[in-house]
């Protein structure tokens, strides 16, 4: 409980610091909304040209993308700081987290909040609402509960992958190339159903770097498309399990990385 209180206090300090520059705050959020709008427009143009992509229509694609945006928004808000681990290792500033009598991870994550994630929340919520309406979905309490669980699971999946990759910096010093690979795979799975890329790609984003569990597999279940996915359809209910497993692996890698850390600071 004390750890959570400290973390929330650090996040509050970070947010108040960001709000001191209100113009930058608003501009950042608007830029994210515009970027997402452009991505959705490109999806619309693509689907309009081909009518559907392997059985996925326009509003199903909007749902898929918006689902990813919602999960990513929470990662962006609270855990984006993992992307900066390389800088802290190279510059030696990670040492400061080890010298204070507070949990290292709590300090690191509480150092900064990426406020532009608010723009993702707005786009994701709007997109899901519009897609729900146009697809004439009729969900009950189970589907709404599963949506919330799946969005949170997607956030944890992305967070765990980023956590593992950032921990590699303790061995390699540099980890941005690995982050780049994750972002490229994310870019493909966020906008398109992975079954259009073939089996090899599905295997990579399911088993190797499992970003497909952020939005694709949960969407199969919520949109009633598990049968269309064939033998892969059952994975639609596995996002929470994958999230827990990945977090466990990430924690193990992190703890081992901390034990072998030696400063490279100047």
Structure description:
With 266 residues, the chain is mostly helical. The chain contains 13 helices and no strands. Helix 2 runs parallel beside helix 7, helix 3 runs antiparallel to helix 7 and helix 3 crosses helix 8.
Which helices and strands occur, and which strands form pairs?
Layout: H1 2-19, H2 22-50, H3 58-78, H4 85-91, H5 95-99, H6 104-110, H7 117-134, H8 141-167, H9 169-172, H10 176-191, H11 199-208, H12 216-222, H13 239-259
Helix pairs in contact: 1-6, 2-3, 2-7, 3-7, 3-8, 8-10, 8-13
Protein name: ABC transporter permease
Transmembrane segments: 21-46, 58-80, 113-132, 144-171, 192-214, 234-254
InterPro entries: ABC-2_transporter-like (IPR010390)
Task: Describe what is shown at a glance.
The protein is mostly helical and 266 residues long.
What brief labels describe this structure?
266 residues; mainly alpha; 13 helices
- Are there runs of 5+ residues with pLDDT below 50, and where? none
**What is the CA-atom radius of gyration, in angstroms?**
19 Å
Q: Oligomeric form of this entry? A: single chain
Q: Which structural class is indicated by helix and strand composition? A: mainly alpha
Q: Please provide the count of β strands.
A: 0
Instruction: Compute the separation of the termini in Å.
Output: 36 Å
Mean pLDDT: 85
Please tell me what the overall shape is: globular
**Fraction of residues in H or I helices:** over 70%
Number of helices: 13
Q: Approximately what portion of the residues adopt beta-strand conformation?
A: under 5%
Question: Largest beta sheet, briefly?
Answer: none
Count of separate structural domains: 1
H-E string: HHHHHHHHHHHHH
InterPro entries: ABC-2_transporter-like
Protein name: ABC transporter permease
Pfam families: ABC2_membrane_6 (PF06182)
Keywords: Membrane, Transmembrane, Transmembrane helix
